[in-house]
Amino acid sequence: MSTKAAGIAHLTERAPQVSGAEMVAALVPPPQFDGATFDSYRADPAFPSQQEAKDLLMTFSGLGQPAAKGGFFRRAKKGPELKPGVYLDGGFGVGKTHLLASIYHAIPARRKYFGSFIEYTALVGALGYKNTVELFRGADLLCIDEFELDDPGDTMVMTRLLGELVSGGTRMAATSNTPPNALGEGRFAAQDFLREIHAMAANFQTIRIDGTDYRQRAIDGHAAVLTESEYERTTADAATRGLVSDDAFSAFVEHLAHVHPSRYIRLIDGLAQIGLRGVAELDDQSAALRFVAFVDRAYDAQIPIRATGTSLDLVFGEEMLGGGYRKKYLRAISRLVALTHE
């Protein structure tokens, strides 16, 4: 395919830069959850924990009972005392992010933020720990999607940050596929950080949400794979309607190593479709994890993916799927299947 074709971009040629101010401005729910509410969350009657979680989170957001005098976040003297944070634990595709966005939209706070775990840690890297604490100090609500700890440094930074903010009155809501006491298991020497992990968990009321992956309910089988001719045709056709990308999978995965994950959202800025040629199984875990982070951003933006080669749900080998990052890979597979069928 000609690289001169109108409407076609190459992600390997993009080197996006993001300022601290832009990173802060982006701390809002993804476009697909702009209108997420508790009313639009459809609890599956086969899994009562979904309705139970919804009811509890409505109470946490001030919708389950009248707010007490003296401020929105102050609770009445009677009734159980909720912890300053709620932690939604469950498998992928059960609506955790929808519920998290519902909390964000339901609470009429003056200062509230919504971002992925990686966005918050990237902000600390860009602004420095002290400046990040000052930025969020006094905030009413912090929503953290996909709370996952991949290294001891993240453990220390996030537990310190959350501890300081909670002591100042900030409320927290987080989602994850792993209960807070189990963060880091199978990834690093978690026992060395048990005190920090448990201190963080003490600030959260864990809410378990069971269910099946809603993305798989209407889709059966693997991610869609195109032949070379189909890829050429669909890419050219899509390029007449908007900007689409076209990259060799191996070169693209290598390029991700040179772009900070907090900037992946800028890699796909303005795209109507992502194209990956010659997909193959990944054999490097660092590369695989970077690809997972990219998939998360593509899914947040709801950008369809068209690909040739190996089915995208098979890029993570059995050894990877059997390791400590299994849940991250399974979430990515679920999202890849959905995006290739968009």
TrEMBL record:
Top-level taxonomic group: Bacteria
Pfam families in alphabetical order: AFG1_ATPase
Keywords recorded for this protein, A-Z: ATP-binding, Cell cycle, Cell division, Nucleotide-binding
GO biological process: cell division
Listed PANTHER family: AFG1-LIKE ATPASE (PTHR12169:SF6), ATPASE N2B (PTHR12169)
Protein name, as recorded: Cell division protein ZapE
Source organism of this protein record: Microbacterium alkaliflavum
Gene: zapE
